Amino acid sequence: MSLPQLSAVTELFKPITWFPPMWAFACGVVASGAPMQGKWTLAVVGVALAGPFVCATSQAVNDWFDRHVDAINEPQRPIPSGRMPGRWGFYIAIIWTLVSLGVASFLGPWGFGAAVVGLMLAWAYSAPPFRLKENGWWGNAACGISYEGIAWTTGAAVMAGGSMPDARSLSLALLYSIGTHGIMTLNDFKAVAGDRAMGVRSLPVQLGEQRAANVACWFMALPQVLVVLFLFAWGQAGRGLVVAVLLAVQLFMMDYFLRRVTQRALWYSGFGVPFFVAGMMVSAFGLRALVQAA
């Protein structure tokens, strides 16, 4: 059997998708309030684990089990195009799962346990018998929890020496996980034809594209409203105001997106979502200030 080219393996791992969990882990590191002296290695390994390892594994798993859908939606991808020969997509998913667990072992029980949960969700999202992605409600929730909640919580816990993050950090991790449910719905707009043909019940397929876009915007906006309220309640009015401004920009862009959802879903993903993730880091620095002042 011929070996896949390195370029095909890199494309299979989709480096562009690594940013959200890496950013969320970094937010957890900041929110922990822990001093960085002597812990930079932990932070760097954790960020790498979230992106080039666990997230890359999830992409490989997804592309293998979605190869028939991709043959309709995106036939140029490595597996349906034949640039990833035979069952190499599946083998790489297994190998990178094991490599990810090896890397996670350097982060102690919290890091290893989080990697196990994240990898289980990655396989459950794409692979039978669970295949959570066949229902947009469950699949998007799994992605939000894995990409944001687990990554944030793990970053905070690892930097705090394995202690459970406080309720404020867990609250923000949960809220941004819920918001990411909406972001994942945006990602489904590009695959509506293939999803419908293959019986994948994404939210645009279940609800229709206009209603799904409205639901996605509510999922993204409401958690951020709560983040703003929490920051004000915790005495971080300045940072709460910054998040409120970032949300206001998103609301303006959402209005433009909702007028032509099919044509503008990719546009909003590219230009609106960065304001969402910027608010994550602002809120993380708010928590850091609270922890260090205590």
Structure commentary:
It is a single chain. Helices cover 79% and strands 0% of the residues. 52% of the residues are buried. The protein has 294 residues and is mostly helical. The protein is built from 15 helices and no strands. The longest helix has 26 residues, at 40-65. The protein has a single domain (6-293), classed as Farnesyl Diphosphate Synthase. The protein is globular and about 60 Å long. The model has no long low-confidence stretch (mean pLDDT 95). Helix 2 runs antiparallel to helix 3 (40-65), helix 2 runs parallel beside helix 15 and helix 9 runs antiparallel to helix 15. It starts with 5 loop residues before the first helix and ends with a helix.
Concise description?
Helix content is 79%, strand content 0%. It is an all-alpha fold. It has one domain: Farnesyl Diphosphate Synthase (Orthogonal Bundle).
> How many domain regions?
1
Poorly predicted regions are none
CATH architecture descriptor: Orthogonal Bundle
Q: Within the CATH hierarchy, at the fold level, what is the topology?
A: Farnesyl Diphosphate Synthase
By DSSP (H or I, 4+ residues per run), the number of helices equals 15
Question: How far apart, in Å, are the first and last alpha carbons?
Answer: 61 Å
Radius of gyration: 19 Å
Strand tally, please? 0
What is the share of helical residues? over 70%
Structural class: mainly alpha
CATH C-level name: Mainly Alpha
User: Given the C-alpha coordinates, what overall shape results?
Assistant: globular
Elements, N to C (H/E): HHHHHHHHHHHHHHH
Taking the sheet with the most strands, its summary is: none
Would you tell me the overall average pLDDT? 95
Strand-residue proportion? under 5%
